[in-house]
Amino acid sequence: MKLDEKERKRIPTSEFGLPGKRKYPMPDKSHAANAKARATQMVAKGKLSSSAASRIRAKADRILGE
Question: Model pTM?
Fold first, then answer.
């Protein structure tokens, strides 16, 4: 499910992989899995630090029950 701007604004900041920037929303398991994949891609492209990706993956894993 793609989030539109209105839906994204309703998501609490705590449900983002990077809450300070409100990036990588994870309101459900589908978005958590997607955030994990995107974080890995962004590290490979040099657009995200590995430490930020680790935080995103850790949060996604908690949501996914891994």
Answer: 0.89
